[in-house]
Amino acid sequence: MQKYIYITLGIVSMLLGLAGIILPILPTTPFLLLSAALFIRSSNRLYRWLTENPVLGSRIKRFREQGGMLLKEKIYAILLMWLMIGTSLFFTGLNIYIILLGLIGTLVMGFKIKTL
User: Fold this and answer.
1) Could you read off the pLDDT of 83-106 as tens digits, one per residue?
2) Could you give the dihedral angle defined by the CA atoms of residues 50, 55, 60 and 66, in that order, rounded to the nearest 10 degrees?
3) Is residue 38 domain-shared with residue 72, that is, in the same domain?
4) Which residue in 28, 46, 47, 81 is a FRET match for 55, CA 20 to 30 A apart?
5) What is the C-alpha separation between 38 and 9, in angstroms, rounded?
6) Three-state secondary-structure class, residue 68
7) Within this chain, do residues 32 and 46 fall inside the same structural domain, yes or no?
8) Residue 43: phi, psi to the nearest 5?
9) How many separate domains does the chain show?
10) In this structure, are 3 and 36 located in the same domain?
11) pLDDT digits over 40-80, tens only?
């Protein structure tokens, strides 16, 4: 039963990650990494399919093997995050909590995730 729960959660996570490619409000990489972690515990076939995907697989493999992301990917992620924060501030007005969340996200991306 646990195997089917992991597969279901992995598919949901993967769909959210794929939606994140189109929708800038959803992060792609964390959802895909979660999918890979769930698939490796439940289905070798789905894990292989995800990691061998020509578009998504290289990022997942690189993060799993080397533990980080490319500098240009990190810069792009931080810029996109601040674009969304700026959009939120535009529509909601100046909000210190949104700015603090953005600063925390920038610090996590900048210092906790290894740059290759």
Assistant:
1) 877 887 788 888 787 778 777 777
2) 140
3) no
4) 81
5) 7
6) strand
7) yes
8) -150, 110
9) 2
10) yes
11) 899 889 999 988 888 788 778 887 778 777 788 778 777 87
Give the bridge partners for 45, in sequence order.
none
Q: CB–CB of 20/31 below 8 Å?
A: yes
Would you state the pLDDT for residue 5? 92
Alpha carbon of residue 47 to chain centroid: 17
Q: Look-up: residue for tokens 């993967």?
A: 14
Q: Enter the tokens of residue 68.
A: 């980080």
The residue among 24, 43, 66 that closes a domain is 66
Determine the pLDDT at residue 115: 72
Are both 46 and 91 inside the same structural domain?
Answer: no
H-state helical runs in 23-95: 29-40, 44-51, 57-66, 71-92
Residue 102 is part of which domain span? 68-116
Q: What does the radius of gyration of the chain's CA atoms come to, in whole angstroms?
A: 16
